[in-house]
Amino acid sequence: MPRSTYTEALLGPELYSKVRDTKILVVGAGGIGCELLKNLVLVGFADIEIIDLDTIDLSNLNRQFLFRKPDISKSKALVAAATARHFNPSSGIEIHARHGNVKDSMNDLEWIKGFGLVMNALDNMDARRHVNRLCQAAGVPLIESGTAGYLGQVTPMIKDHTECFDCVPKPTPKSFPVCTIRSTPSEPIHCIVWGKTYLFGKLFGEDDEDLDTEELDQAKASGENAEEIENLKKEAAAFREVRKGLGEEDGPQRVFHKVFNEDINRLLAMEDMWKKEGRVKPVPLLYESIIDGSFQVPPLRNAPVAPQPQTEGSAKQAEKKGLKDQRELSLKENLELFIDSCKRLSARAIAYPNLPLAFDKDDDDTLDFVLATANLRATAYGIANKTRFQVKEMAGNIIPAIATTNAIIAGLIVMQSLNILKTLSSSNSGTSTETNGASSAGPAVRNVFLRTDPAKPLGFSEPQRADQKCSVCRDVYIPFRVDLTRCTLGQFVNDIIKNWLETASFESREENDELEWTIFEGGRLLADPDFDDNHERTLEDLDIKRGKMLTVRDEDGKWRPIHFCICEGDAQATPPYALPSRPPSIPLAPPAPAPREASEEPILLDSMPPVAAVSAQNGSAAPASAQPAEVVPIASTTAAGIKRGAPEDGDVRLDGEEEVAAKKRKVEQVAVTKVDNGDDFEIL
Ligand SMILES: [Zn+2]
């Protein structure tokens, strides 16, 4: 009996035939992608294309289970397809694997239109946005997904029925005011950012005096304490001095004295700075008394009761109990680690004087340095210390990638894909704009998210309608098959814009509306009514490529922009382009948004986006509209886009909780069942 017999019985013949016939695109063969591909094959999807530009890394193997050690350095997409093929043999399943970038020019509008459904299993915003735009332009349903630690979400996006990826604004990465990092830290992350980007850069990075001055001048111009800024400038000059002597025997000790004693004393002399509410004065550190154990550790600023003084004894106890990287170092150990890592790094800097060093979480020398400096600074400011593991996670912007979360999310993607397929009219395989719409009853699809509340592990919400102001899903897209070597910009303007587009139906067009057009590609202006210098040039000459868009806007901004999506043309055809037989309907543009207020604070470095909206190992956490209130279990210091390596043996122990929880959370139904629980979302 073929493996698909049960699936066919479960889904029914109609839905099962759609599963067999619909061409699926999976973008990404990583954490979610591997799980997803396996699920698709087992359900019986028979025509799958998977694309990924990445190769397999050792650190992937703890969760991307389609890969084995001998596969390291090979293409993820090719290996994933080769492995998954065997899961449902003799069922006629075709998996087309492509090692490449989804943004490659060959992946144009015509290409994406060849799919009935697209599933994103991506790890970065840029590619997500690209696929979203393609799917919106082509009218192909997209299932967007992402995980961040224990959290995750699945968001179906169907043109004209739900919001798209860009309808929900994404928060910009969090950054910190210069003075918080340089003078008045109050959180461990401030100390880590200081160690990683400021002190490390000053001692071992590229010495860029101009950049430094510019940054401080900007901070001053935007209203930060002028005296403090002048002080920071002097400090920068003094750094150049200690940097020169780093290679000497007492070099690291001199750095310690300058950074943790002299600089702190200089800050303390600025009385004004410490008058502000909530500021805690730092305590200068003393090398000798830390070494001989007589140094009085300042109390923790947030401690409700007097803190236990840190002693060598308690550190030793912790050492026995904890794992190497999860043990908090004593003050003396931090100092010794600072001296030692400084020596190691300066030896490297001397050996390769023209090669500035850069922080890398997997480079032990640089991590030790940041660990020690962050903890020493934290101690001086009465801020809690962090372990090596925590500093690695925070400085490396790591969000743990958890196999179980990926598996749950991949399962939910397939369930939502079945919901979408059910809504497609039975007469098609969902390959064109006209036929991809949902049934008249509306799409029975849901945004589903995984939460950390054991009582309500899965939540869902109805997809929101598209934001009328969205510049991605509300614009007009036109497939434009063109031979770029023969079509000139003048032809495009005269034949297509002035003639063909005139026949389109413009919403609320008055008889006397004279249309004047401006033509862009990306951010480049190619032509407008007073600028025809490029008219004689071919599109190829203007560096217009397949996969790009020629964007046409009316000068008054009355209507939506129209994007002509460049697809491969026929080299023999006359004229050298082909357009849809029916000109489009052009809706009115929404009213212009109010101008944004300028950002209040000058910013410093580091990409530390707020947790709730991060784009993590395999995705972004839930958008604001679908976000449960308690989405804060990830340390507020983790951030986007960096993959986490496999933990070393004995290094990290993940709680077994997620496995138990996953068993309890088994989702048994394809369709979502609402439970009236009085909450503002429902539970599966
Ligand atoms: Zn949108």
Automatic annotation (TrEMBL):
Domain Ubiquitin-activating enzyme SCCH: from-to ranges: 301-392
Domain Ubiquitin/SUMO-activating enzyme ubiquitin-like per the UniProt entry, residue ranges: 481-557
Stretches with biased composition (Pro residues): 577-594
Keywords: ATP-binding, Metal-binding, Nucleotide-binding, Ubl conjugation pathway, Zinc
InterPro entries per UniProt: ThiF/MoeB/HesA (IPR045886), ThiF_NAD_FAD-bd (IPR000594), UAE_UbL_dom (IPR028077), Ub-E1_IAD_1 (IPR042449), Ub_act_enz_dom_a_sf (IPR023318), UBA_E1_SCCH (IPR019572), Ubiquitin-activating_enz (IPR035985), UBQ-activ_enz_E1_Cys_AS (IPR033127)
Organism domain of life: Eukaryota
Residue numbers annotated as active site: 179 (glycyl thioester intermediate)
Pfam families linked: ThiF (PF00899), UAE_UbL (PF14732), UBA_E1_SCCH (PF10585)
Gene Ontology cellular-component annotations: cytoplasm; SUMO activating enzyme complex
Domain THIF-type NAD/FAD binding fold: 10-439
Pathway(s) of this molecule: Protein modification; protein sumoylation
GO biological process per UniProt: protein sumoylation
Renumbered residue ranges of the record's region Disordered: 300-325, 576-598
Family named by the database record: Belongs to the ubiquitin-activating E1 family.
Name this protein carries in UniProt: Ubiquitin-activating enzyme E1-like
Lineage: Eukaryota, Fungi, Dikarya, Basidiomycota, Agaricomycotina
